[in-house]
Design brief:
Blueprint (H helix, E strand, L loop, with lengths): L2 E3 L5 E3 L3 E2 L14 H14 L3 E3 L8 H10 L8 E6 L6 H15 L6 E4 L8 H13 L6 E4 L3 H10 L6 E5 L6 H4 L2 H8 L2 E5 L10 H10 L3 H10 L4 E3 L6 H9 L7 H8 L3
Parallel strand pairs: 3-4, 4-5, 5-6, 6-7, 7-8, 8-9, 9-10
Antiparallel strand pairs: 1-2
Helix pairs in contact: 1-2, 3-4, 8-9
């Protein structure tokens, strides 16, 4: 596994596991709980030690499954990220939301806690008052945001009493909003990790240029797409999969050697 360095010096895996739709979408689906817990354990053993979840996933049920899966592993070997809902950004609600997440996962702390989506109705100043407190209390090691534009990201940096670790956004070969709006460049300049979610969505796997490069290298289109993302400074990614073959392929994507010509083609992909 390769790693990126957060502003506090901590190493975070470049490739993590997204858990959206494990245990349900926005409501719980308990029909495959036992199988999902065993799969999560197997995934961790494969080398996925960064698990990314959220209280919104599965209507809080995904956190429960993550909690059951990680009991078999040493806490210090895992990097757990979760997120607070945009409706829980009032001061008192943040405290309650985190308490719920910790209880469901059986943890004393999370490694990274993100604001899942911005909420214009709730001042960031109020939210960060709570976030700063839970960091001071040791319940959260690092703070971050998700789906924040440049203005909100800069405001968050000013309000956070500890270095802001990450901004998690939708970013892939065909979804370049956060490259075009300056967020990616700003994160790289400031040493903030940009966590790319949905790295294989938006038609990436069916794009003829991606397929052509994959065929030339004897790899999959998904591996090409993940390699392009993770070769960029301060960019990590969290693809979600429950397919063991795809999970193994994703790990080996980090080892691919793209030529400068291939990178140029991918950089200009639209």
């Amino acid at each position: 596994m390769q790693y990126e360095t957060l502003l506090d010096g901590t190493q975070i895996p470049i490739l993590g596991l997204g858990t959206w739709q494990i245990g349900g979408g926005m409501t719980p689906d308990r029909s495959q709980d036992a199988a999902m817990v065993e799969l999560l354990k197997k995934i961790i053993r494969m080398g996925y030690t960064h698990l990314d979840t959220a209280e919104a996933y599965g209507g809080t049920h995904t956190e429960e499954l993550v909690g059951q899966a990680i009991r078999d592993f040493a806490r210090e070997d895992l990097f757990i990220t979760t997120k607070v809902r945009q409706t829980n950004l009032r001061y008192g609600d943040v405290q309650k939301a985190l308490a719920g997440s910790l209880q469901r996962m059986g943890l004393d702390y999370v490694d990274l806690y993100l604001i899942h989506w911005p909420n214009e109705a709730i001042p960031l100043k109020e939210t960060f008052r709570a976030l700063n407190e839970i960091v001071a209390e040791g319940k959260v090691k690092r703070l971050g945001v998700s789906n924040f534009n440049l203005k909100l990201l800069k405001e968050s940096i000013e309000l956070a009493e500890t270095p802001l670790a990450a901004n998690q956004v939708r970013y892939n070969l065909l979804s370049r909003e956060y490259e075009e709006n300056g967020v990616l460049e700003f994160c790289q300049e400031q040493g903030i990790v940009l966590t790319a979610y949905s790295p294989l969505k938006d038609g990436v796997l069916n794009h003829p240029t991606v397929i052509g490069i994959a065929q030339e290298l004897g790899v999959t289109a998904g591996q090409v797409a993940l390699n392009w993302l993770t070769r960029q400074p301060k960019v990590i990614t969290i693809p979600k999969s429950t397919n063991e073959k795809h999970l193994a392929e994703n790990l080996t994507a980090l080892e691919i050697e793209l030529s400068s010509e291939m990178v140029e083609k991918l950089n200009n992909l639209r």
